[in-house]
Design goal:
The chain is of the alpha/beta class and 340 residues long. 48% of the residues lie in helices and 18% in strands. It has three domains: 160 residues, NAD(P)-binding Rossmann-like Domain (Rossmann fold, 3-Layer(aba) Sandwich); 100 residues, 6-phosphogluconate dehydrogenase C-terminal like domain (6-phosphogluconate dehydrogenase C-terminal fold); 68 residues, Alpha-Beta Plaits, CATH 3.30.70. The chain is built from 14 helices and twelve strands.
């Protein structure tokens, strides 16, 4: 039997959910207050049908309703929503959403730990959630409803992780919301420091990447989780103050840096990085593609760092231990320079 899902909000996340579920055989309908957003979702193949209103979207007897909108919009929709259908959401803060959904007979909170800095259905992808963690907050929901939401998560290629709304909001304040604020602060500091941005390179760009995200969505997220975010900011400030007092102690700093490197390494499987110099000319990435095809190595990660003022860049290919030499030989054979 084909499962039916109705998506409220067809931007990047909603359209990606729709595209992924359609690829898995679900029947997907959708509504968005923006006609352009709805048209874009249709154009990329994310929807089987559209609705003209929120009421129509939930009256179509769906197995599941997905609220795919920024936090305040989700809360606003919940305040006027009445449906016997199971409802879930994708908002990045959970306690205010759970409170707003308290009048619904069936609600299971959710939050995919995946996204992009761009917005809009035109940037959506059925593969957006593959391999990602998707938080599910059951609270007092029936087990069957929780399992239905988790079946959607599995259909999208993500991994469901259950936790309470409070646990979620505490955790994302540290690993998601705090990095967003730090990226903004770093950029503000660099902009006000003479020549700093002229010297910004790969590590600075990595640390500030999330500052390119949608300001409207992030201001809502930070406001909705302000208590946890403020607590994390204060705690982080205390850590920085303590660090400022010890930064000149080489031995103590080396110990902390080594410990941090160990934690960071544990976040990903063991790999060996191979750096390739790329010229600023057509065909360089095609050469890399031929080398990867010829070597048949398993690429676990890649990163391209452009020279800010032109002149090419450096591509880092991370492969399984034991495969680096094979890859290096293949890269050299197609005329690329491998950096020592």
């Amino acid at each position: 039997m084909t499962r039916r899902v109705s998506i409220v909000g067809t931007g990047l996340i909603g359209a990606s959910v729709g595209a992924g579920l359609r690829a898995d055989g679900w029947h997907v309908s959708g509504w968005d207050p923006s006609a352009d957003s709805l048209d874009q979702a249709v154009a990329i193949g994310a929807l089987d049908q559209t609705h003209g209103s929120l009421q129509a979207a939930v009256a179509d007897d769906p197995d599941l309703v997905v609220l795919a909108a920024p936090p305040q919009s989700v809360i606003d929709v919940l305040s006027e929503l009445s449906t016997p259908a199971l409802v879930t959401d994708v908002a990045g803060v959970k306690e205010p959403v759970i409170a707003a959904a308290s009048h619904l007979a069936r609600f299971v909170g959710g939050h995919p730990m995946a996204g992009r800095e761009t917005v809009g259905a035109e940037h959506a992808s059925a593969a957006l959630f593959r391999g990602a963690t998707w938080v599910v907050t059951p609270e007092a929901a029936d087990e069957a409803d929780v399992e239905l939401v988790e079946s959607m998560v599995h259909a999208l290629g993500a991994r469901p992780v259950r936790m309470t709304a409070a646990e979620h909001d505490q955790a994302v304040a540290l690993v998601s919301h705090l990095p967003q604020v730090l990226a903004v602060t770093l950029l503000e500091s660099a902009q006000s420091t003479s020549h700093a941005l002229d010297l910004a390179s790969g590590s600075f760009r990595d640390l500030t990447r999330v500052a390119s995200s949608d300001p409207s969505m992030w201001s809502q997220l930070l406001s909705a989780n302000r208590g946890e975010v403020a607590a994390r900011l204060r705690a982080f400030g205390h850590r920085l103050e303590a660090l400022a007092d010890t930064v000149g102690e080489a031995g103590a700093m080396e110990t902390r840096l080594e410990a941090a490197r160990g934690v960071r390494s544990a976040l990903a499987p063991p790999v060996v990085a191979v750096d390739v110099a790329l010229a600023d000319e057509p065909g360089e990435l095609a050469k890399v593609g031929r080398a990867l095809e010829n070597s048949s190595v398993d690429v676990r990660d890649l990163q391209l760092r452009h020279g800010r003022h032109g002149g090419g860049g450096v591509l880092t290919l991370s492969v399984r231990p034991g495969e680096a030499e094979t890859l290096i030989a293949a890269l050299v054979s197609v005329g690329l320079e491998v950096l020592a």
